[in-house]
Amino acid sequence: LGFISPNFRDHPSAKLHWRHLALRDRARFEVFGYSLHHGEGLLRQRIVESCDLLTELSELGSREIAARIALDGIDILVDLAGHLEHSRPEVLAMRPAPLRVSYLGLPGTMGRELIDYRITDAFTTPPAEEAFWSEKLVFLPDTLWIYNDREAIAESAPPRSACGLPEQGFVFCSFNASYKIEPDVFDVWMRLLARVSGSVLWLLDGGETVRRNLRREAAVRGIAPERLVFAQRLPHAEHLARHACADLFLDTFYCGAHTTAADALWAGLPVLTCPGGTMAARMSASIVHAAGLPELIVADRAAYETTAFRLATQPGDLAALREKLARNRATCATFDTTRRTRELDRAFEAMWQRHTDGLSPENFAVPPDEENVESR
Fold it and tell me: CATH 3.40.50.11380: does it fit domain 2-149+336-375?
């Protein structure tokens, strides 16, 4: 197996991938990593340790990269980026391995015949939409998402005052990147602030322009600008710990939370989401569903607002969700890295079996892990 990415460095993708690379069954697979962007630090070192060999290719041309991968005798090349920055889709076009697979990265089709298989799930990519993909689809049983089940959370959460939050009052939170905040979801958020006395909206700080624009838009909607509180960037373990200061994570609509949603759930914060019509708008729903919280996935925007208001004004309902999330955390599919790795391994073996049988790529579903079926 070859895994190619520009993000084997201090990047959210590296946080997701190093653990399953390390867990891969070395009796069945040899793991090669190919880096398309130079990086250093702890995450880079973890990727190095998780691969049998990691090769830095960022200084090479695309033809040279393809030749190197072919020389290594890779059977299945797994692209972890898609059309993200610093990726090299032209390398995939040269078919440096018999099979090319897309996993995570940009949430969507490559739009042309660069990839043989896309790994997904039936929640994120409904089977009825297969015709809109240039890749054949491989459906994992619960969710395509994979998380690092060793992700550290700082031992103590800061007080609300240290985060600029009021000691009393409901804290709505959305740590999505600011480019995901569209006017229609912002309208809903401002209506919630107007309806829930003393509440605030806690956002990730995207810089002076973002702060100024969002506070201006809040004022236009009749909300005092100071009710928008911006979180400064922190080391990841500390960032996870401060989720304890929030009450409810509100997802965005068109491009939802991905790693951000999984981080919130891992830290014990319920995530409310309204899935849309694209993979980017459905990923968080897949993550929340696999965490065993289907009641936090709503059908439309009216239900999104109604549910958020109910949870903000009915403490017992929110407490029950928090307790359920805490119970599920150790066993749910979202955070079971070992289970997801086994599912991916079975997917790769099925792809390779079809290839050695002389069959073209085709859509298929990976059956659930028998151990987990028996334990349910």
Answer: yes
Quickly list DSSP for 299-337: SSHHHHHHHHHHHHH-HHHHHHHHHHHHHHTTTSGGG-H
The conformation of residue 294, written as its DSSP 8-state character, comes to G
d(CA 51, CA 24): 9
Residue 349, SS3 per DSSP: helix
Identify the helix (H) or strand (E) that includes residue 23.
helix 12-23
pLDDT at site 14: 85
DSSP string, 231-282: EPP--HHHHHHHGGG-SEEEPPSSS--SHHHHHHHHTT--EEB---SSSTTT
Q: Do the bridges between strand 200-204 and strand 171-174 make them parallel or antiparallel, or are there none, so unpaired? A: parallel
Regions of the chain short of the pLDDT cut 70: 370-376
Pair 95, 2: CB distance under 8 Å? no
Q: Which residues contact residue 193 at a Cβ distance below 8 angstroms, ignoring those fewer than 6 apart?
A: 172, 199, 200, 201, 218, 223, 227
DSSP label at residue 251: P
pLDDT, position 372 = 56
The reply to whether domains 2-149+336-375 and 160-333 share a CATH topology is yes
Q: What is the CATH number of domain 160-333?
A: 3.40.50.2000
| pLDDT score for 376 | 40
Q: How many residues does the chain have?
A: 376
Radius of gyration of the chain (CA): 21
Extents of the domains making up the chain: 2-149+336-375, 160-333
Structure-block tokens of residue 345: 């391994």
- Got the DSSP string for 145-182? ----TT----SSPPPGGGGT--SSS-EEEE-S-GGG--
C-alpha span between 17 and 249 (Å, rounded): 24
Give yes or no for a contact between 204 and 178, defined as CB atoms under 8 angstroms apart. yes
- CA distance linking residue 294 with residue 232, whole number of Å: 31
Q: Which residue has the tokens 């009216």?
A: 302
Residues 6+ apart with CB under 8 A from 206: 177, 178, 230
User: What per-residue confidence (pLDDT) applies to 84?
Assistant: 84
